[in-house]
Amino acid sequence: MAIKDYLRQRYFPHMWCPGCGHGIVLNSLIRAVEALGLDKNEIVMTSGIGCSARISGYVDFHSLHTIHGRALAFATGVKLSKPELKLLVPMGDGDALAIGGNHFIHAARRNIDITAIVMNNRIYGMTGGQFSPLSGVGKKATTAPYTTIDSGFDVVKLSMAAGASFVARTTVYHAIEAVDLLKRAIEHKGFSVVEILSQCPTHYGRKNKEGDAAMMMEFQKNTTAKIGSKALEKDPTLIPRGIFVDNPETPEYCESYDKIIETAMKRSQS
């Protein structure tokens, strides 16, 4: 199946701002799906509200464009009813870790077989540039004209602590690397988290004097390094990229649930 067959081409051109990194995330995701040779009828994408959530409108999969912060809750329901399907959940800062934070940690704790893609642009773009749980300290936003004082979450550390059995991080600058990590995440049996650092030149970049999209992508290149690289050894302040957790031995939730049903059925018949 060709890449174009996975897209709803009638909805293009997309609605993202010029320079937004989310289109690159969509590109990497579609290439990962194509490389795996997945039938689009075996994929379900659920999304919430925000710039990132619009991805579900552009893919020709079964898709649910749901309410803010509840994308993982809808995905959990679909997965439990149809465990044979591949669940993809693209989320922004809010859907994943603000209003959706509780769903996120419990999906990770359960280790349900869902691929969560956290598109981290450190801002709420669609609603006007408010700061988010991923903005960090000392950043400007429409709701923080004198800079933020809230610490930001570390998506990787939070995912690991909550129990996700596959955790990875990359950037939109490293788009080919993102394809590989997304492939690995989709193939993994369990809750997979792929954080992709993205840029929002319209709000975050402009307010924080980080320049245009190209400059922001250069920043992603220069401030990150692969796990195990010499660059990271020399400069531990760099943001690590790569796979942090890959534990295929952790029991998957739907399979464990099926065993409970089997046990209950046997007892009811005895």
Automatic annotation (TrEMBL):
PANTHER family: 2-OXOGLUTARATE OXIDOREDUCTASE SUBUNIT KORB-RELATED, 2-OXOGLUTARATE SYNTHASE SUBUNIT KORB. InterPro entries: 2-oxoacid:Fd_oxidoreductase, THDP-binding, TPP_enzyme_TPP-bd. GO terms for molecular function: 2-oxoglutarate synthase activity; thiamine pyrophosphate binding. It comes from the Bacteria. Gene3D superfamilies: 3.40.50.970. GO terms for biological process: cellular respiration; small molecule metabolic process. Pfam families: TPP_enzyme_C. Residues 49-196 form the Thiamine pyrophosphate enzyme TPP-binding domain. This is 2-oxoglutarate synthase subunit korB. The gene is korB. SUPFAM superfamilies: Thiamin diphosphate-binding fold (THDP-binding). The keyword Lyase does not apply. Its EC number is 1.2.7.3. Keywords: Oxidoreductase.
